[in-house]
């Protein structure tokens, strides 16, 4: 999830554990926010190239074993900062919970979190939450604000808002399960032969869902809103030369992304450039992770900038959330 959400979650968890202890409310919240953002500092590590940096993010710093081993030190620092050394054991619980919940909500996104290290490097990803979702973050901020303002019932309100955000996570899983069932029924009705299906939320919400279907000829993309009138999923098919994957299977960045994305990637030849794309994040015409790969393996991969146009994307997103049948703006532009 985004840094603001992680900081807010860390602060609210710290308050839930430490809130009625003697000491500064502001310091408690600040310490929790810092601990909540700490695992994401692994972004400063350079693993040698942009694809390696991508697939090795959320590794050791998000691993539950290492977080457990580090928690006693972080708890001692937090207790020292908050002048609550007599409450060290509560800070130990708070520190561990903050780190674990950071990893837990990251695993709810589609990016992938290798929290099983060193036992397994599998990138676990539920994929039921977008990396930024106001409906998850706003309750946390409201509870945090009420507590810091020294409202008489700030502690209770903070805990209630933490429960609301947690319930929203559960809702996202239920919505994803519901849409996934609809997608599989729709694909059967269309008699479409496919290998894999991915169902993830569109940006900023859990009402509109993006569907990616891996086929023999490439892949297909569609969107389904819980407010749609029909359960039928309309797909836009993208034809790709699938032999490129076999031809370039020995390239390190291709191997890395094939593993990391669990097969939801594409290779495309554009002129003399070989484009490697993670199909899970973004949408057709505007992907978050797209790389130019050297087929001769002489130069390191180069990441292409994501196509961003909020003036175009947000109105389309709002209309599509409401169940209106409007085509993707990026596909319109590409046609």
UniProtKB/TrEMBL annotation:
Classification via InterPro entries: Transcription_regulator (IPR053170), YdjM-like (IPR007404)
Keyword Transmembrane: yes
UniProt keyword annotations, A-Z: Hydrolase, Membrane, Transmembrane, Transmembrane helix
Residue ranges of the TM segments: 64-82, 89-112, 124-148, 160-179
Molecular-function GO terms, alphabetical: hydrolase activity
Residue runs in coiled coils: none
Name this protein carries in UniProt: Metal-dependent hydrolase
Organism the protein comes from: Rheinheimera maricola
Lineage: Bacteria, Pseudomonadati, Pseudomonadota, Gammaproteobacteria, Chromatiales
């Amino acid at each position: 999830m985004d840094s603001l959400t992680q900081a807010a979650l860390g602060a609210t968890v710290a308050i839930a554990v430490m809130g009625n202890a003697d000491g500064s409310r502001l310091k408690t919240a600040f310490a929790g926010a810092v601990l909540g953002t700490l695992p994401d500092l692994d972004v400063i590590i350079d693993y040698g190239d942009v694809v390696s940096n991508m697939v090795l993010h959320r590794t050791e710093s998000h691993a539950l074993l290492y977080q457990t081993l580090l928690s006693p030190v972080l708890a001692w620092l937090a207790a020292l900062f908050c002048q609550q050394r007599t409450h060290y054991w509560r800070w130990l619980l708070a520190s561990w919970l903050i780190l674990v919940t950071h990893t837990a909500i990251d695993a709810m996104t589609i990016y992938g979190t290798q929290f099983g290290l060193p036992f397994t490097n599998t990138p676990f990803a539920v994929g039921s939450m977008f990396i930024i979702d106001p409906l998850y973050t706003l309750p946390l901020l409201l509870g945090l604000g009420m507590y810091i303002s020294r409202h008489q019932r700030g502690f209770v309100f903070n805990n209630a808002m933490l429960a609301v955000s947690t319930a929203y996570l559960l809702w996202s899983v239920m919505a994803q399960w519901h849409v996934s069932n609809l997608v599989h029924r729709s694909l059967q009705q269309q008699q479409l032969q496919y290998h894999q299906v991915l169902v993830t939320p569109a940006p900023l919400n859990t009402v509109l869902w993006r569907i990616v279907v891996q086929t023999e000829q490439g892949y297909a993309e569609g969107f389904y809103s819980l407010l749609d009138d029909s359960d039928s999923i309309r797909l836009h098919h993208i034809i790709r030369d699938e032999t490129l994957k076999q031809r370039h299977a020995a390239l390190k960045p291709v191997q890395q992304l094939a593993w990391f994305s669990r097969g939801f990637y594409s290779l495309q030849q554009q002129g003399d450039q070989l484009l490697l794309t993670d199909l899970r994040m973004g949408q057709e015409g505007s992907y978050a992770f797209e790389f130019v790969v050297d087929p001769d393996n002489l130069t390191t991969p180069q990441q292409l900038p994501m196509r961003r146009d909020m003036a175009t994307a947000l109105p389309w997103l709002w209309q599509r959330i409401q169940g209106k049948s409007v085509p993707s703006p990026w596909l319109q532009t590409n046609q």
